[in-house]
Design goal:
By secondary structure, this protein is α/β, with parallel strands linked by helices. The relative contact order is 0.16. It contains 12 helices and 8 strands. Helix 3 crosses helix 5 and helix 10 packs parallel to helix 11. The chain binds guanosine-5'-diphosphate. The site of guanosine-5'-diphosphate has 17 residues, from helix 6.
Length: 298
Amino acid sequence: MFENLSDRLGGVFDRLTKQGALSEDDVRTALREVRVALLEADVSLPVARNFIKAVEKKATGAAVTKSVTPGQQVVKIVHDELIAVLKGDDEEPGTLRIDNAPAPILMVGLQGSGKTTTTAKLAKRLKERDRKKVLMASLDVNRPAAMEQLEILGKQIGVDTLPIVKGEDPVAIAKRAKTQASLGGYDVYMLDTAGRLHIDQDLIAQAAAVRDTVSPRETLLVVDGLTGQDAVNVAEEFDDKIGVSGVVLTRMDGDGRGGAALSMRAVTGKPIKFVGLGEKMDALETFEPDRVAGRILG
Ligand code: GDP
């Protein structure tokens, strides 16, 4: 499959060391390999370019070129830079602003991204790790099956769902969830908004109306981590139209290399809070920049 970046750079530097000290050109040759590795990991071209520029500045210093292990030095610089971009100046990954009970969390994303599954996984995490009392409500009025899916997951994980009332619109459901959360002493209520296959006016207008009704403490965008550049486009659009406080990348258990995480962070500036690692209710983890960096490097 993918050639490991360290091996690949090792090869380049093996050839170079025979010629004596490394020149800046030699480092550039190595960085071309890094660029290929990034593109193979599905990092978008402009993001890969900027990234290489940043690394080049650091890697052309005397400490690297005169080092006895220049290949390893370059790999380390690349690794550190990846973590710096992935982490940004975010608060601790996985942190949610859910003080002031009941705190609303709005879940948004395209249909099939894993939104409903992630809503339930996160509810389970909040219940078990943070000892929060959580209420979930589905606003997907056009897809009764999606509403039932959340109800079934709720029963499975022991988290309450708002009873389904036929014919109610999403804003009315959101209001009912808010009332129920206050009266019932819930710490958090999670609103699973409708998903569509594409972003359209209706979807955005509906999510915006719900946002204006509950003023969410967190608006989490769920995106399929295997969709690369598409995931980034989706995030930009949702952020522009609705405002997103954090991202959950799903399907990180797939065989993608995780480049979407780097592009996502570099382009949108939004913190990646969690990653989905499977279909099971426990398969949600705090986003860890160093793990993803290792994966991107191969
Ligand atoms: P929604 O339409 O966005 O609400 O998507 P669903 O939550 O219904 O998920 C669609 C499918 O993706 C389901 O079969 C989920 O089990 C699956 N899924 C969700 N998250 C993950 C993940 O992190 N990894 C894997 N492998 N499958 C996932």
